Amino acid sequence: MDERLGSLGAHTDQEWTQPTDSTSGEDVLRDVVRVASDALGDRLIAAYAMGSLAHGGFSPSVSDVDVGLILADPIQGSDADALIGVAENVRSIGSPLHERVSVFWCTTASFAGRAAGGRFPPLDRLCLLEHGRLLKGNDVRSGLTAPTQTELLVAGARFALDLLADDVVACARQPGRFVEGGIRWTTKLVLFPARFVLTAQTGQEGTNKAAVQYYSELSGAPGTALVRAAFDWRTNPPAVVDALAMLADDFVPLYDYYLTDYTARLESIGESELVAGFGDWRSRLLAEESSV
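Below the sequence we write its predicted structure tokens.
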């Protein structure tokens, strides 16, 4: 066992699990549609389930509840506040699943980039187009434009730098942070690199299941056992010590592979700022690894 696991201290397996919730994902979707319909009225053209509640693999203990809302054009000045209110009202219902609601919204014009406004990043637009499940209204996806592969690559890189880099570097030095973050957070950190690599290579949404299969079949890719295990952990939380042993061995090589892969892709499209950001991230990651 890696000596870095000494930082685990008095953590227990109980801390690794998520609280149970009698609420179902479908219950939360119904609440989102109800609250959105009340707030938006006739401006709500269509509501879609997204993420794992649309393409499968939903796990009540770790999954988010993602919803996409399409509004009538044009964007109005009050729309942003109204949609923030929809999300806040649903989260205030109080169950753990309600608190994990993410609402993405736009009009058909803003989805296509013909108008400013909305909250619908490229990766989530791709999810809507490929896997969205209509909950209310008319299916308007045939008239929406898919994001380009370059948009997906750049958006994924920015997301990773903004929201993952610091946590990944911290965990490279102190694996006990995985337990503090919980199994939901841990599985996301492990699975994101595989999902990003799949999307960058194929232009398809990196669902967890597809990403695990794709990454596992890559020649020479490190951490394939960890990626497969993390997918299983979403429904079968492991013993803490066993999980941390795998993370200590494979987490840094997994991210080193992802960062190297993405740096080359970003260089090929001239994204010098992101290349520098990924280079700094990799340097910090490997420095933390070597100092432990």
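The beta strands are 44-50, 65-71, 101-107, 133-137.
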